[in-house]
Design brief:
By secondary structure, chain B is an alpha/beta fold. Helices cover about 40% and strands about 25% of the residues of chain B. In chain B, strand 7, helix 7 and strand 8 form a beta-alpha-beta unit. Chain C is built from twelve helices and two strands; from the N terminus they run H-H-H-H-H-E-E-H-H-H-H-H-H-H. In chain C, strands 1-2 form a two-stranded antiparallel ribbon. Chains in contact: A-B, A-C, B-C.
Chain lengths: ~300, ~260, ~325
């Protein structure tokens, strides 16, 4: 492979990877916007999405098969289920804690994450479950760079979802309400916005996206296990921070940036795949220390 | 009277809103100065600039002939400016005495080693912290029976006093009081006037207060500055401010018609 | 009772606190517990001794993490990193360089302090959510580094760590380590108590309860937080050092996120910031899996659910509120 084809291949890989990160980062950033909380359990919603997708695929296997249509349906089912789960979690665990000290709500989020992880751990006995959609390995070649249909479908679906979200946020009433709440919650309440509803819708949307990403990951990589949410949670957070926490376009940008960084980064001699995660975490720490508002974030002067 | 605190051309803005515009402002040593103005005029923001929590976009602030702008808030306090808050912010789940002791932190230095080994210097310092805090509590009139109680369980008026004691414990040269009379009864306000006067006379601390109770302001202040929409529109002795047409207009123009009538 | 409000006087634990209300009574209780701990190996046998030693190790680590989380209010999700630094420092210096164990301890502690300064310095001023994730990332970085570097033995770790001698006493049997850890735990408790009742201890609470007000009182919150973080690192590395020689072999799995969460659970279950509670939490975290042995991986789920319930209904842990720190 020549250098350009190598780099081009990494570009493709990076964009695919970045799509996952972007989808999950969006949920993080949206939730952070309205309740000012980093939902630790978000990565685990991705994991749940993968399992739900696995179950959904088995469910529809008999009727629509396990090819593209089957996968698409699994994604939809997963989005509904995980979105709903997100709302339930918010109502049970976070809503009562909003007036509590910061530390308490953070630990609660951690507890939810652990419950989800260990719940699935118990159910699956920690085994890696294989997900086998029949999507084939076909693709096409552009000048030595191989792009398969799965990758296109993935990036395409992610793009559609993100576009849908963007339109939802900018064109609909709920979207406007969401933006209002993320700027000033108390003022929004005074203006008659049903803040609880808005929060619930936000959680639904963010969780649904994570669920979709999880199902797609399961279908793409072929395996799901209880711990897969942990790493993606951290990476998605990194992506959200790179793009600017609280900013929706930022999350998309951050996700793609991180995907590309990782993809190209692993080609740097010495880094390789074992150190890939260390590389990403280091990026996270550097961004937080030197440019905590990220690429597109607004700087906060949150004081008395 | 030497100028203790001097603001020069301070301009502060957030996300497109100008909060303070070219503010020139002075507090002389050993005096009681008040800052008044309609709601939203920018008074608390001015306090936050002085204490280092907000960084103005332009202008300068000097205190005791030191430049204050590059300092972080805790350094501003160490330089000698202490404050109370509009909504009383005592440390929850800690006793009254512990709350006041926080003020002595910046005047002492014992660290982990001294604590772990109970070094004599550390023990002496703990004594000093306690003694000084007790003295501040006595000064503001909070009785011994309340010292060990959870600070947030005290009556509102007493909580305000504890906050003042806490600020005094930092051994300041200038004390900023943010609406100290809010929520006090008439009797408590009288006691507050007496306390502020004693702070100036007995402890030689200059006082700058933000206050909405214009009667109290006129009673106690040596100088009054009026802030409206981010600029100082008038400055002088209470008598002159009361008669100043610009001031009356600023208040009538806002919802504070009551305050204007009180003038 | 809604979460987040001050806990009202509770049930059975409250009665315990009211029974032990004078220093004399508390002194007797402490003496009794100490007596039990001293005779435990003889009374309960070898298996129990090993378990109790583990509980004492967790006590030391939980005390250290308590300073970070319970006193200073910093959510550290990567505490196992300091544990790892201590253990690996000892492992590497003794096996690769042939050092005497006792000589390695100051270096292990120094390494952890340095790590704490390097990570904490730039990041402790971040808001708490970000800090939590950064510490998580740091924990992962240390674990991954341990798993991939030659000097740390990669995935198989380091084995054959020599057990130390002290004035002719070979510290090698489980009962030997039991007493070593008991002494360490007691020292750890005393240090924590002294710190809690000092200027620094109060500063931690001020910063934890209201950072901005603390800053307005002239407290350098970053420095105060850093002190907590570094002291926590010291506890962690000492625990790790003795852990290494106790097991004579260490591998990266002992320093995972799961481990960090177990330490955190020990601190929270018992009551953040209250020393007797933290000790209790450590014992629960170690002993419960023994009791729940038959449940297999289900027991972690029980812990997680327990943690969630505690956060929702009794956020200051299962120790009564208002008891002595």
């Amino acid at each position: 492979m020549t250098l350009t084809t190598l780099l081009a291949q990494q570009l493709v890989n990076g964009l695919v990877l970045g799509s996952f990160y972007a989808l999950v980062a969006l949920g993080y950033t949206m939730v952070f916007g309205v309740v000012k909380l980093l939902n630790f359990a978000h990565g685990d919603l991705y994991m749940i999405g993968a399992f739900v997708g696995f179950l959904a695929l088995s469910l529809v296997a008999g009727t629509v098969g396990t090819s593209w249509l089957g996968v698409a349906m699994s994604i939809l089912l997963s989005m509904l289920a995980v979105g709903f789960l997100g709302v339930v979690i918010e109502r049970i665990a976070y809503a009562p804690m909003l007036k509590a000290p910061r530390l308490s709500i953070l630990i609660t989020a951690l507890a939810v994450s652990l419950v989800l992880q260990n719940g699935v751990l118990t159910l699956t006995n920690g085994q890696v479950v294989a997900m086998s959609p029949t999507l084939g390995f076909a693709g096409f070649d552009i000048g030595g760079v191989f792009i398969n249909y799965k990758q296109i479908a993935l990036a395409g679906t992610a793009a559609i979802l993100m576009l849908g979200l963007e339109m939802f946020v900018s064109r609909t009433q709920y979207g406007r309400a969401m933006r209002a709440v993320s700027v000033d919650k108390d003022m929004s309440e005074l203006m008659g916005i049903d803040v609880n509803r808005v929060i619930a819708v936000t959680f639904f949307a963010g969780s649904a996206l994570a669920g979709a990403a999880g199902t797609m990951a399961g279908a793409y990589y072929g395996s799901v296990w209880y711990f897969m949410g942990f790493l993606i949670g951290l990476k998605a957070f990194t992506a959200a921070v790179i793009g600017g926490i609280g900013s929706i376009p930022g999350a998309m940008l951050g996700g793609l940036t991180l995907g590309l960084l990782e993809s190209f980064g692993t080609q740097i001699p010495g880094i390789g795949s074992e150190w890939k995660d260390v590389f990403s975490f280091s990026v996270l720490i550097l961004v937080l220390v030197f440019k905590p508002t990220g690429l597109l974030g607004k700087s906060e002067q949150e004081r008395m | 009277m030497a100028a203790l605190l001097h603001l020069n051309g301070v301009t502060l803005g957030f996300a497109g809103n100008i909060v303070l515009q070219g503010v020139d402002f002075t507090v002389d040593a050993g005096t009681i100065t008040s800052l008044i103005g309609p709601n939203g005029a920018g008074k608390t923001s001015l306090f936050n600039c002085i204490t280092g929590f907000y960084k103005p976009q332009s202008g300068s602030i000097s205190f005791d002939r030191r430049a204050m702008l590059p300092l972080k808030p805790f350094q501003v306090t160490r330089a000698g400016i202490a404050r109370t808050f509009q909504n009383v912010r005592l440390f929850r789940q800690m006793s009254v005495l512990e709350n006041v002791m926080s003020g002595q932190h910046c005047r002492t230095s014992a660290g982990a080693i001294g604590a772990i080994f109970h070094l004599p210097a550390q023990q002496r310092e703990e004594e000093k912290i306690r003694a000084h805090s007790v003295e501040c509590l006595r000064f503001v009139g909070v009785g011994q029976d309340e010292w060990e109680r959870d600070a947030t369980t005290l009556a509102y008026g007493h909580q305000r006093r504890v906050e003042i004691a806490r600020a005094l414990a930092t051994e300041p040269k200038l004390l900023l009081l943010d609406e100290p009379a809010a929520g006090l009864t008439k009797g408590e306000k009288g006691e507050l006037v007496e306390l502020i006067t004693r702070i100036r006379d007995e402890r030689k601390v200059a006082v700058l207060l933000i206050e909405h109770d214009t009667g109290l302001v006129m009673r106690i202040s040596e100088r009054v500055s009026v802030l409206d929409h981010g600029t100082i529109i008038a400055e002088g002795i209470p008598k002159d401010i009361q008669a100043n047409p610009k001031v009356i207009e600023a208040y009538l123009g806002a919802e504070d018609a009551e305050a204007a009538l009180a003038l | 009772m809604a979460a987040g409000k001050l806990d009202p006087r509770p049930d059975a634990w409250g009665r315990l606190a009211t029974i032990l209300d004078t220093p004399a009574k508390r002194g007797v209780a402490i003496a009794l517990i100490l007596a039990v701990m001293v005779v435990a190996p003889m009374a309960f046998g070898q298996y129990a001794t090993v378990i109790l030693t583990n509980a004492l190790l967790y006590t030391i680590l939980a005390l250290g993490l308590n300073i970070v989380v319970g006193y200073a209010g910093l959510l550290d999700l990567g505490y196992a990193a300091f544990f790892a630094v201590g253990a690996y420092a000892v492992g590497i210096l003794t096996t690769t360089f042939g050092w005497n164990f006792w000589a390695t301890i100051p270096l292990a502690v120094l390494a952890a302090m340095l790590a704490g300064l390097i990570i904490g310095g730039p990041t402790l001023r971040l808001r708490s959510d970000y800090l939590a994730i950064v510490t998580l990332g740091f924990g992962e970085i240390v674990r991954i580094a341990a798993r991939n570097l030659d000097i740390t033995g990669k995935a198989s770790g380091i084995s054959g760590i020599e057990q130390p001698w002290l004035f002719g006493w070979h510290i090698a049997r489980p009962v030997d380590f039991y007493y070593v850890f008991l002494v360490l735990a007691i020292i750890g408790i005393l240090v924590s108590v002294r710190l809690a009742n000092s200027r620094l201890g109060r500063a931690w609470l001020y910063v934890r309860h209201d950072e901005d007000a603390a800053e307005a009182m002239g407290i350098n919150r970053v420095r105060v937080k850093l002190a907590a973080y570094v002291i926590g690192a010291i506890y962690g590395s000492i625990g790790g050092a003795f852990f290494a020689v106790n097991l004579t072999a260490i591998s990266p799995e002992s320093f995972s996120f799961k481990q960090s969460t177990l330490f955190l659970m020990a601190v929270i279950l018992g009551g953040m910031g209250k020393i007797p509670g933290v000790i209790l939490g450590a014992f629960i975290v170690v002993l419960a899996p023994e009791v729940l042995r038959d449940f297999g991986s289900f027991r972690y789920l029980i812990f997680a659910v327990g943690l969630l319930l505690i956060m929702l209904y009794r956020p200051s842990g299962i120790w009564p509120a208002g008891s002595k720190r």
